[in-house]
């Protein structure tokens, strides 16, 4: 189970970012994952209204897999790139990042490619002909990740993927995401499947195997034509988490690896995490804007215009989720809302993660009224205002209630039950509450 709140993906490609300090912060926070971009893509300052964006290195502070040439003219300072040569300093930095992550028990999602959402992003890519000496990339940004209209870039992309995979072959804490948000910018499914083949064939030759992830959609979608080499299907902004149920039958890990665009309050993202995991998801990564170059300890105070949240208190909240789920044998559990009987008040939802007759995790949340507000709009409920009706077998059980917002246990009791429906009044709560029932 990967549960984390990580920086905006520039930890390696941004030379001003102190990734050791950042990884230390994740480890101390009890979190075990991070995403990072390989360097085929970066952003200009101000992209997506992000203040102090780690994916937007300052002039001359961008590093990527390709070596610099001696010809001036890169769009963000320094010389152009040579797409036929590798930058040894970059791979030294990448492997050092992986080494420090491994020491701290942190799994890295290495994202190889990303679509160019706007011309401003394409103007900064080493693959743009204006930024390399190889006369490659004289194509529209929407043709870069295709099998037919790439203008000679496909061989460059294949070579980069093979090089990265070869350099990281001995690390056990990495998996490869083919492309971030390939549903934008003209990225074709055939190209994604081809790159999955390139990764898996390269690893077969190296005698190793790492997981490959594919980013499917924002919000929800059903995976069609799954590639046999893909083991993780990632979604963004997956709240509510119906996409888990749509794809649970694939028997693959379903992830929610990017959040945002619902204000800077913690609550909607905490609810998204709990909802997604109790729906049967196996990976959650909040996009945490409190990590910046110069604030790698997660203390950056971002403006109200920031498109997401992130702070020490939020990281404490999802650590609480992570620690609670690990108290259970979650590998043997599966989502099963049929154990919940009866109706709930309008807007209130309940999810159940179940190991039949052994352990049950229930998550109840109130509606979030104003998606983009920065103030709390979750409802509060008094003692026993809501009753859970739970189908349980015979046995002796322990029930414990938890407050996900304050990260505390509320009450615990042991009881005997005869097969049938158990009715439990829910303790008073604000926004959300969780219940664990385990066989004694």
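-> sequence recovered:
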């Amino acid at each position: 189970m990967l549960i984390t709140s990580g920086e905006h993906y520039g930890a390696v490609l941004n030379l001003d970012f102190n990734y050791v300090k950042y990884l230390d912060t994740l480890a101390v926070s009890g979190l075990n994952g991070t995403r990072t971009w390989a360097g085929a893509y970066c952003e200009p300052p101000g992209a997506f209204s992000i203040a102090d964006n780690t994916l937007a290195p300052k002039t001359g502070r961008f590093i990527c897999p390709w070596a610099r040439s001696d010809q001036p003219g890169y769009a963000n300072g320094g010389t152009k790139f040579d797409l036929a040569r590798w930058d040894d300093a970059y791979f030294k930095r990448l492997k050092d990042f992986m080494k420090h992550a491994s020491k701290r028990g942190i799994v890295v999602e290495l994202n190889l490619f990303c679509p160019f959402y706007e011309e401003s992003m394409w103007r900064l890519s080493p693959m743009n002909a204006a930024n390399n000496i190889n006369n490659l990339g004289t194509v529209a940004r929407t043709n870069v990740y295709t099998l037919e209209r790439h203008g000679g870039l496909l061989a460059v992309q294949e070579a980069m993927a093979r090089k990265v995979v070869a350099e990281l072959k001995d690390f056990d804490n990495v998996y490869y995401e083919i492309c971030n948000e390939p549903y934008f910018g003209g990225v074709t499914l055939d190209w994604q499947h081809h790159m999955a083949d390139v990764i898996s064939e390269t690893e077969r030759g190296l005698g190793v195997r790492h997981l490959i992830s594919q980013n499917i959609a924002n919000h929800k979608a059903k995976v069609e034509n799954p590639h046999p080499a893909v083991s993780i299907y990632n979604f963004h902004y997956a709240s509510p988490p119906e996409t888990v149920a749509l794809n649970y039958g694939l028997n693959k890990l379903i992830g929610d690896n990017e959040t945002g665009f619902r204000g800077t309050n913690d609550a909607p993202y905490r609810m998204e995490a709990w909802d997604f995991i109790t729906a049967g998801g196996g990976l959650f990564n909040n996009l945490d804007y409190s990590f910046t170059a110069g604030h790698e300890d997660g203390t950056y105070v971002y403006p109200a215009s920031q498109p997401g949240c992130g702070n020490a208190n939020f990281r404490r909240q999802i650590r609480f989720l992570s620690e609670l789920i690990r108290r259970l044998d979650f590998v043997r559990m599966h989502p099963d809302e049929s154990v919940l009987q009866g109706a709930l008040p309008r807007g209130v939802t309940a999810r159940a993660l179940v190991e039949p007759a052994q352990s049950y995790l229930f998550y109840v949340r109130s509606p979030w009224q104003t998606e983009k507000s920065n103030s709390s709009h979750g409802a509060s409920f008094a003692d026993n205002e809501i009753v859970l009706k739970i189908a349980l077998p015979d046995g002796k059980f322990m029930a414990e209630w938890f407050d996900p917002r304050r990260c505390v246990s509320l009450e615990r009791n042991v009881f005997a039950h005869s097969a049938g429906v158990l009715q439990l009044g829910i303790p008073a709560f604000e926004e959300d509450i969780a219940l664990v029932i385990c066989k004694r």
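The chain has a mean pLDDT of 96.
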